[in-house]
Amino acid sequence: MRNEPLVYELSRPGRIGCTLPRSDVPEYSLPEGLIRTELDLPELDELTVVRHFTRLSQKNFSIDTEFYPLGSCTMKYNPKANEAAAAHPGWKNLHPLAEPEHAQGALELLWRLQEALQEIGGFAAASLQPAAGAHGEFSGVLMIHAALKDRGELNRRKMLIPDSAHGTNPASCTMAGFVTQTIPSGPDGNIDMAALRAALDDTVAGIMITNPNTLGLFETNIEEICRLVHKAGGYVYGDGANMNALTGVFKPGSSGIDVMHFNLHKTFSTPHGGGGPGAGMIAANEALAPYLPGPVAVRRGESYRLEMPAKSIGQVKAFYGNFGVLVRAYTYILMTGGNGLRRVAENAVLNANYLKALVEGVYPVPYKRHCMHEFVAKGTIVPGIHTLDIAKRLIDYGFHPPTIYFPLIVQEALMIEPTETESKETLDQYADAMLKIAKEASEQPELLHDAPHNAPVARLDEVMAARCPILCYRG
Amino acid sequence: MAIDKNARYLESHEYARPEGGNFVIGISDHAQAELGDVVFVELPAVGKTIAKGATFGTIESVKAASDLYMPVSGTVIEVNEAVKNDPALVNKDCFGAGWLIKVAPSNPAEFDTLLDASAYGKAIGEE
Amino acid sequence: MPFIPNTDAERIEMLKTIGVESVEELFSDIPAHLRVQNLDLPDGVSEMEALAALDALAERNAQTTKMDWFVGAGAYNSYIPSLVPALASRGEFLTAYTPYQPEVSQGTLQAIFEYQSMAAKLLGMPVVNASHYDGATALAEAVLMAWKAKEGRNKILLPADLHPEYAKVVATYLTSFDIELARYEGDPERASLDERTAAIVVAYPGFSGEVYPVEKAAARAHAAGALCIVQADPVMCAIFKSPGEQGADIVTAEGQSLGNPLNFGGPYLGMLGTTEALIRRMPGRIAGETKDKEGRRGFVLTLSTREQHIRREKAVSNICSNQGLSMLQTCIYLAALGKQGLRQVAKQSYDKAHYAAELIGRIPGFRVATKQFFREFLVQTPKPAADIARALAKKGIAPGLVVSRYFPDRPNELLVCVTEMNSRPQIERLAVALKEASK
Predict the structure, then answer these.
(1) What ipTM does this complex have?
(2) Domain residue limits at C426
(3) Entry pTM
(4) What subunits make at least 3 CB pairs under 8 angstroms with A?
């Protein structure tokens, strides 16, 4: 595939890719002293723009084109029906500051989605304002901060975080003014309970826990963990990134979690868009519900309005959330239904265990347990071969690599999450490729070291990119 | 793994080497190998006084970023500008051209409490 | 319909391979008393039924295209060329993920680089990141960035005339930090800075639409050892001097009106750009140019060691996603409109807004309160603005934001916004209707 020029390189003076109607009003002069003289934007005709971005798109792997088993990302099929629903002009052309009586459809959708997610999670209340998982985490940790402040216990500055946690967890704590303390995982892949007990004192604000954890394993002691943390005076934050293993089977709220976020762009099928936009619903039990970020949708009689929760931490973004994404999540929940959500979790877990069974003979899986919706294997199959090499070689077989080098507690980790929307034959093909690559690793390792061979570009020099950053066109 | 015998070490792989009343500070060969290609080094301003054990900067590769800890307390008298412009010097010659800062020590006896070359060698051999 | 392809027969085979009798066994780690059998939610329905339900809800909302729409205040009724959604909705863009494997994400990465380049030129800054959730969170992150860059200083000056939701979001982000937020009135050039000031935020334009020049305010900030953060209207930057060329250290903006639909408030696009000196303190993803082993140009995410997945609790910010698709839509919009098109959009908005202001200013009892503006201006009304708006809604006109929605002590003010989407007849109808409603 040839190199696609940049828009600036395709630019020709005098071209334009879209025309406006001619102005029908008088011209007014701009304020002296503030007039911009140079505007260095490219000039392209519409066909060139269309070809350019179409060709760019063809260089991507995507769910629509390839199996994409990124662990912890839940790359399930993004239904086209979601897109059809979201395209209605009643959503696209609705201004956030329309009077509430002129936005009742939107407010009702927000309310119904809040209610559905509360039911799925087992929580008393929810807010749809956070724009992403990390944003939800930040909100939740701020809620804990606010609750502690009300109790006069801001001396509790420590948040406990398992060593398997996603990097956003400690980063969110820092943004909320907490310090973090790592709790190790035990040989069974779960939180080390002795270490947890030892860490609990009156300086602990709470614990952030992902369940299933990033090893794809259910924290069997979840109830005890919640009980211990509560007894020590702390709160339990639930990171819901891995909710795809649990919908309709287990409600995190019922185990004692106080506040939790879901990633709607993971479990609830909204498209990943090359890195967003997502949506990070945050839900809480009765005790923490008043602190939710707002405004949230409430039902008053027959109509819907926006209100701030009684002791809200405030707004975490302007307006009400990534509403366009919420429309898609709601559409998905309607189509899937309560009964369907259970089948989602069951098939997600089945697919992961099946794939694990196919490859674990060759790729060591450190934990001899059933996994949930994802599993972690190690790429240390042959000396001199790294997980990175295996990942890059998978590209040549037409698969997007799994998540690599995460979680940090497993060396040379490969985190694989197939999701429920993949067929058995896709899983068979993927396992087949992994086994072929393992063979190549011993017989022709250079095929892996030099991979990918069949992608639009070969391995890229990330060192040069970081040493001499070129972050902008410098024509 | 090269280990400069004239230097002493922190367990976190920073070294200090005496040079006329002052100390040259950098990171060891083991550390640079673990980090991978260094892409950026953040160093303190000349004149800053930093205690032993406190951070004096950060060093980054593509996949990791580490804080740099003072092996001895002192005032920064010189900073290696060459390393700022060519971070690869740390990988190529960490004990020589890839030095990071020079300090005038406030308590030179701290040097003796560091791991000597053989003790450091054992420490990284055991890792 | 949960989009599950495998049949019961296939599931039985899979269970055999795993070596268990039933799917239930795979959930054995979940304590039995915590497992649920069903959710209190209706059963799933077909696509046809789901879309009918969604459309029924959508029909109950007001649409800007079905009214004469003059409300802005942080979200703008701008024209989106058809090629923008057509290209952005391609499956290869829509259903790709974060470009962590650059060799198979060159489409996304090059688009990010192109967006960064065009946004940088528009805002006048050397570098712009791959985006934040929205303009408000971008501003909040910019404030934190400036505070951390100016060790020992803990005061941030915020204009009184800042979008109230933006002010709220900034306050939320600063909750746990010992930072003093001081509001200043009017021209930022006259704001009072001292040795505790880490940064001054300039709203360009302010919530009222007022445009103050940035240059002298930035110079004063620098003289006082502080940074200058400018929160800008990116469309305005096409014809007004950019914040960057006036000395801004950090620029933030809301990119929604550059190719993203209104969508009841999101997903939008937080733009953030900064100087070379502050690059490593800048949060968010960023793409950079490099070469592959064969010498071909390619793009990668870079400077990742600032980010949460590497630095964890020491990360510059916790932000993980950017607003990928929203950023792509803005990128396509900027490429399609280009230098001339964006200038036209901006100038038409400016001209139409000034025409509207002229007509409204002539109505007895009405006064345009903003002295220098781009496409939005404050109007003082002879009767409560809420009553006027209600009357005009019956005629299919949304005359502007009723300011008392945010400021209950300001009942007689309307914030009027005019864009390239408003025609002259609409503007003239607005003036006539306002006059009628004031009687």
Answers:
(1) 0.97
(2) 64-78+339-437
(3) 0.95
(4) B, C
